[in-house]
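pls design
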C-alpha cells in the first residue's frame, strides 16, 4: 500500500474534466476519461517526486544518469496504478462512474520512444532504480515518431509512421523554463592563450535548442519517483532571425524545420549520407543536452569538479551516446579550464559503457568527414584522445604489434577514415560490461581481446533483468494474484522470494489452478488473433511463440523450416505429430533488411497454405501478429506454452524476452546462447529444452561448414528445402522464395540453420510428447516461474550500483 491518501483522487478527476476540458462528465470521451485518470495519478507522482528530490538533495547523493537513444516504456497508467498501490481503489471509483478501468487502459498509446530489447531494458532499469529507492535518471530524446508502425499487406511488411501524441500526453511534463543551447557545425580556429598554450576556438557554429520534458517513474509502493528526461529539438530564434532580417524568409523557416527534425523520428535511415548525418546529430544532441543538464545540477551544490565522479555516474547504453567521452572532455577542458590529464581522469571515472552486441555491423563507426563537419571540436578532441592513447600503448608495451595498435585505435584507417565508437567508449570509461555471462566472455575473447588484455580490471558482466512489476504484476494479473495468494505480496518488490512457490510443486489442486490461468491467457490471445487476423486457433493447442525482432541470427527461418517439416509429415506421410500446435510469430524487420522482410513473407505464405489445408485437421495453425510492441508483448507473453529462443549460439548478447516468457510459466526451447545459459542453470536442465551447437562448436564448425552435406544426408530437410524452392507456398508469385533456398544452401551460411535442424526437430518432438503429460508440464511451468527470481532487473541494478556506479538506496 502507498503512504498517501486516496481521497483527493475523485476531486482531481472531476476537476480535470470540468475545469481543464470544460466539459460535463456525460460528454467526456474515452480519451478524456483516460486523461482525467492519468491527471489524477500524475498529481500523486509529482508530490512524491518533490519529496524524492528533496531527500536526494539533503543527502547530497551520488546520482546515476542513464543515457540511451531508446526507452521503450510502454503504457504508463496501469503500471503507475500498480506501483503506487492504488489500482483496486481506482478501479472501484471508476466503476461508480460506469467506467471499466480494464477497457480504459486500452485507450492509451505506446510512447514511440524505442525499438526493441535495448529500449525495453532501459525502461526496466528505470523502474528498478525507483523501486530500490536509488537516485537514477534516464536521458533520451522526445521523438514524435517511433521506428515505424508495421502493417502487413499480402504477407509483405509495410512501414507506416508510428506517431504518439507526445504533445498532448498527460504523462509528459514540459519544463518550459529550461532550455539548453547546443552548438553544432562551424569550424575550429587555432590560437594561443596568454601563457602561450594552444587554445582552440570553435567558431561559426549554428545553435540547436534542447527543451527538456520529464516522464515520472514511480517505484513500487510509491516511496520514490525518479524521472526520464527527454529532449525536444527546437531551432534557435536568435540565429534564424538574422537570416530573416536579411530577407530570406524561406531559408529561415527551412533552418527551423531542419533543426526540429532531430527529435522527429527514431533511427532515420542511414542508407544515404543525409540520413547518416541526421543520426549522428541525434546522438550528439542527446549527449550535449544530457551533459549540460547533469553539470547544471551538479554545480548547484558544488563549486569545483574535484568530486564530480564521486557525485555523478553516467552509463552509456551501447555506443549511441559514446560522444559523451568527447563532450565531457570539451566541457571540462574548454569551458571549465581544467587541465587535460585531470579532465581525462574525471571522464574515465564518471563514464561506464554497456556493450549490447557481438555483431560487427552493429558496432557503430562514423566517417571522419561527417564528424569533422557536424562536431569539428569533438573530432579534434577524439584525435587527441587517440594520439595520447596510442602513445600510452607503446610506452606500456614497446613490443606491441602494429596489428594490435591498428585494432585498438579509435581511428580506423582506410579509403574512408572511420571513428570506432566502441573503441572511444572503452578507452573513455572505467567499466565495460556485457549483459550475459557468455556474452561478456565473448566480448573479452572475441570482440575486443586486445583491450581486455590491456585493462582486465575494467571488464565485467551484468546479466540483464526485467521488471516483475511490468512483466508479471501488470501484464499477467491472474498469475500475479495467484502468486500473492500463495506466498504474499513481497515478491513484487523482491522477486527472489518467488522461489517459495516451489513448495506447491506436488499439489495437484495448485497446479490445476496454474493451468487454468494459462488457459485463460491463451483464450484471450486467441480472441485477439481472431479479431486481428480472422483466424480461429485452439487455446487447447500448444502455443509456441516466437516474438522478437526479425533477423537471420534469431532464426525465425529455422522455426519456419520445422513448421514446414511438420506439415509435410502430416500431408505426405500421414504421421501423427502429437498434440496440436499453434505457432505464433511477431516482430519487425528493419526497413532496409530485405532478407528479413522475405522471411516475414515466407511465414505468411506458409500460414496461408497450412491454415487452409483440410488434410491438416487443425493440427497446425500459424499466425503472425503485426506491429510487435510493449502492449502486444503484454498480451502474447502470458499466453505462451513454449518460448522460442533459438538464435545461433554466440550471436545473442543476452535477451530479455527469454526471461519474461520463463517467469510467466513458458518453457524455453533454445540454444546455449545469451541468458539462455543462465536460465537453464536456474530452472534446471530438465525444465528447459536445449538443442543445437554450442558457442565453441559453432566457432569450430563455421570454417568448414557445407550446408549441402546436411541437405544430401537428411531426406526430411531436403524435402522442406525443395518445397521452399518450389512454388508450393507462392503459387501466385512463382519463384519468390528461391533466394531463401540459395541463402540456406550457400557455403559458409553464417547462421548454421541446417546444422541445427535435426537437433531442433528432435527437441520439438520431445516437447510434443511431454505436453501430453499435463501434470508434468505444469510442474515444469511452475519451476520456471519459481526459479527465475534472479532475472529481476532489481538484481541487475543492485549489481550495477555496487560494482560500477557507487550509488545506494535512499528510502523515504
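designed seq:
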Amino acid at each position: 500500500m502507498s503512504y498517501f491518501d486516496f481521497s483527493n483522487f475523485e476531486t482531481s478527476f472531476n476537476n480535470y474534466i470540468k475545469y481543464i476540458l470544460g466539459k460535463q462528465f456525460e460528454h467526456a470521451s474515452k480519451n478524456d476519461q483516460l486523461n482525467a485518470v492519468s491527471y489524477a495519478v500524475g498529481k500523486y507522482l509529482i508530490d512524491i517526486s518533490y519529496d524524492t528530490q528533496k531527500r536526494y538533495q539533503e543527502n547530497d547523493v551520488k546520482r546515476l544518469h542513464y543515457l540511451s537513444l531508446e526507452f521503450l516504456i510502454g503504457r504508463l497508467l496501469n503500471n503507475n496504478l500498480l506501483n503506487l498501490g492504488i489500482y483496486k481503489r481506482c478501479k472501484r471509483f471508476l466503476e461508480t462512474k460506469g467506467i471499466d478501468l480494464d477497457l480504459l487502459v486500452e485507450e492509451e498509446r505506446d510512447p514511440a520512444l524505442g525499438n526493441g530489447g535495448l529500449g525495453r531494458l532501459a525502461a526496466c532499469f528505470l523502474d528498478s532504480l525507483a523501486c530500490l529507492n536509488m537516485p537514477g535518471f534516464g536521458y533520451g530524446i522526445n521523438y514524435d515518431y517511433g521506428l515505424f508502425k508495421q502493417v502487413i499487406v499480402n504477407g509483405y511488411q509495410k512501414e507506416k509512421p508510428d506517431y504518439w501524441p507526445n504533445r498532448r500526453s498527460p504523462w509528459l511534463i514540459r519544463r518550459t523554463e529550461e532550455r539548453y543551447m547546443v552548438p553544432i557545425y562551424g569550424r575550429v580556429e587555432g590560437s594561443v592563450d596568454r601563457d602561450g598554450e594552444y587554445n582552440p576556438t570553435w567558431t561559426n557554429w549554428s545553435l540547436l535548442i534542447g527543451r527538456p520534458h520529464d516522464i515520472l517513474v514511480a517505484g513500487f509502493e510509491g516511496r520514490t519517483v525518479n524521472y526520464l528526461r527527454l529532449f525536444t529539438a527546437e531551432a534557435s530564434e536568435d540565429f534564424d532571425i538574422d537570416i530573416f532580417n536579411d530577407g530570406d524568409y524561406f531559408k529561415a523557416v527551412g533552418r527551423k524545420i531542419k533543426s526540429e527534425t532531430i527529435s522527429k523520428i527514431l533511427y532515420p535511415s542511414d542508407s544515404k549520407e543525409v540520413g547518416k548525418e541526421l543520426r549522428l546529430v541525434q546522438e550528439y544532441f542527446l549527449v550535449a543536452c544530457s551533459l549540460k543538464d547533469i553539470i547544471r545540477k551538479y554545480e548547484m551544490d558544488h563549486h569545483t569538479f574535484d568530486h564530480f565522479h564521486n557525485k555523478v555516474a553516467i552509463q552509456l547504453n551501447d555506443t549511441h551516446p559514446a560522444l559523451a567521452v568527447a563532450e565531457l572532455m570539451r566541457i571540462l577542458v574548454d569551458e571549465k579550464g581544467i587541465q587535460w590529464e585531470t579532465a581525462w581522469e574525471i571522464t574515465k571515472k564518471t563514464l561506464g559503457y554497456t556493450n549490447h552486441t557481438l555483431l560487427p555491423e552493429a558496432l557503430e563507426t562514423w566517417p571522419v568527414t561527417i564528424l569533422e563537419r557536424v562536431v569539428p571540436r569533438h573530432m579534434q578532441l577524439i584525435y587527441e584522445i587517440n594520439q595520447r592513447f596510442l602513445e600510452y600503448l607503446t610506452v606500456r608495451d614497446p613490443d606491441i604489434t602494429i596489428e594490435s595498435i591498428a585494432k585498438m585505435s579509435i581511428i580506423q584507417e582506410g579509403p574512408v577514415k572511420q571513428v570506432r565508437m566502441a573503441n572511444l567508449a572503452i578507452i573513455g570509461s572505467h567499466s565495460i560490461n556485457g549483459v550475459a555471462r557468455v556474452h561478456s566472455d565473448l566480448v573479452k575473447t572475441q570482440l575486443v581481446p586486445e583491450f581486455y588484455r590491456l585493462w582486465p580490471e575494467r571488464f565485467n558482466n551484468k546479466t540483464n533483468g526485467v521488471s516483475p512489476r511490468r512483466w508479471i504484476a501488470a501484464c499477467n494479473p491472474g498469475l500475479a494474484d495467484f502468486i500473492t495468494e500463495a506466498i504474499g505480496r513481497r515478491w513484487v518488490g523482491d522477486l527472489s522470494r518467488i522461489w517459495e512457490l516451489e513448495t506447491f510443486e506436488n499439489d495437484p489442486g495448485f497446479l490445476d489452478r496454474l493451468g487454468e490461468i494459462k488457459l485463460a491467457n491463451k483464450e484471450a490471445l486467441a480472441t485477439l488473433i481472431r479479431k486481428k487476423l480472422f483466424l480461429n486457433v485452439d487455446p487447447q493447442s500448444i502455443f509456441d511463440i516466437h516474438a522478437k525482432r526479425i533477423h537471420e541470427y534469431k532464426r525465425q527461418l529455422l522455426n519456419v523450416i520445422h513448421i514446414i517439416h511438420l506439415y509435410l509429415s502430416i500431408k505426405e506421410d500421414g504421421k501423427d505429430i502429437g498434440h496440436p500446435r499453434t505457432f505464433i510469430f511477431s516482430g519487425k524487420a528493419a526497413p532496409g533488411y530485405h532478407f528479413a522482410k522475405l522471411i516475414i513473407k515466407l511465414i505468411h505464405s506458409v500460414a496461408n497454405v497450412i491454415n487452409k489445408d483440410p488434410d491438416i485437421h487443425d493440427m497446425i495453425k500459424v499466425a503472425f501478429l503485426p506491429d510487435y510492441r510493449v502492449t502486444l508483448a503484454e498480451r502474447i507473453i502470458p499466453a505462451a506454452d513454449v518460448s522460442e529462443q533459438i538464435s545461433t549460439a554466440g550471436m545473442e548478447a543476452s535477451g530479455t524476452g527469454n526471461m519474461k516468457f520463463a517467469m510467466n510459466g513458458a518453457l524455453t526451447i533454445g540454444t546455449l546462447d545469451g541468458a539462455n545459459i543462465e536460465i537453464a542453470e536456474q530452472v534446471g536442465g530438465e525444465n528447459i529444452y536445449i538443442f543445437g551447437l554450442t558457442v565453441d562448436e559453432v566457432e569450430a564448425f563455421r570454417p568448414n561448414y557445407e550446408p549441402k552435406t546436411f541437405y544430401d544426408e537428411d531426406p526430411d530437410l531436403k524435402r522442406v528445402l525443395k518445397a521452399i524452392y518450389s512454388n508450393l507456398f507462392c503459387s501466385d508469385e512463382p519463384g519468390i522464395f528461391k533466394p531463401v533456398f540459395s541463402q540456406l544452401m550457400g557455403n559458409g551460411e553464417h547462421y548454421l540453420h541446417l546444422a541445427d535442424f535435426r537437433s531442433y526437430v528432435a527437441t520439438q518432438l520431445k516437447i510434443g510428447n511431454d505436453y501430453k503429460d499435463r501434470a508434468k508440464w505444469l510442474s515444469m511451468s511452475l519451476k520456471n516461474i519459481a526459479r527465475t527470481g534472479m532475472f529481476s532487473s532489481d538484481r541487475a541494478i543492485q549489481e550495477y550500483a555496487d560494482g560500477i556506479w557507487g550509488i545506494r538506496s535512499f528510502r523515504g
